[in-house]
Amino acid sequence: MKCDGLIFDVDGTIWDSTVTVESAWNAALEETGYAERVTASQLKGLFGLPMLDIVDRIVNDPDTKKKEALLKKLTVYEFEYLGKFGAPSYDGLENALSHLSDKIPLAVVSNCQAGYIELMLEKTGLGKYFDMHYCPDDTGLLKAGNIKKVVRELGLKAPVYVGDTSMDEKACRDAGVPFVFAAYGFGNAEDPAAVIERPEDMIGLFVE
User: Fold this and answer.
1) For 95, which DSSP code?
2) Contact, 17 vs 85, CB < 8 A?
């Protein structure tokens, strides 16, 4: 598959933080006074959405100030727990990134909050393979806009985005970039340009 640069999603594509985040978010929900709780399985269906949308799906509450307080606490607890416990990257991913980064530039684009990508790169030790990364708090843009930004800044002519959800696929359509579906991740895809069953499949797909 022709490709002169790869852009990656985070959750469900690079690492699986859902078990750690489940504990963090439930602590935040309890401390903010909500009875609702989340599971790692539920989080797999929510990751990829902007954080405010995730909060609205977790709690049904018209109290905007209380939800804003929850959002702040979710971020604090998530960073605290991930900073302490980390989360696993997918088997074979580092080998794939090592091969790919020698041939083409790599980037990360996610709809996460500021600092999350940096934390992931630090805890996994994968930061050395990536040339740039963006999230909405960095630029004011959602995923499609940040994909376009990476394409422009890296001067890519044949970019590809690797992600694991239909939301990633839609962002790629909006950005005009081919979408490769990471079937080992959290979600589904309708009509991806290609499918990878494991991270190391990228080596044969994108580089000779």
Assistant:
1) H
2) no
Q: Are residues 92 and 177 in the same domain?
A: yes
> Is the four-CA dihedral 44, 151, 126, 71 of positive or negative sign?
negative
Instruction: Compute CA distances 11 → 17, 134, 173, whole Å.
Output: 7, 14, 20
CA pair distance 115, 78, nearest whole angstrom: 11
Residue 169 CA to residue 174 CA, distance in Å, equals 9
Taking only the tens of pLDDT, the chain with its 208 residues reads 999 999 999 999 999 999 999 999 999 999 999 999 999 999 998 887 778 888 999 998 999 899 999 999 999 999 999 999 999 999 999 999 999 999 999 999 999 989 999 999 999 999 999 999 999 999 999 999 999 999 999 999 999 999 999 999 999 999 999 999 999 999 999 999 999 999 999 999 997 6
8 A C-beta contact, residue 30 and residue 73 = no
DSSP assignment of 63-93, as one string? -HHHHHHHHHHHHHHHHHHHHHH--PBPTTH
**Helices 64-85 and 116-124, interaxial angle, to 10°?**
20
Burial 93-116 (b: 16+ CB within 10 A, else e): bbebbebbbeebbbbbbbbbbeeb
How many distinct structural domains can be found in the chain? 2
Same domain flag for 109 and 52: no
Amino acid (1-letter code) at residue 157? K
Domain that holds residue 163: 5-16+88-206
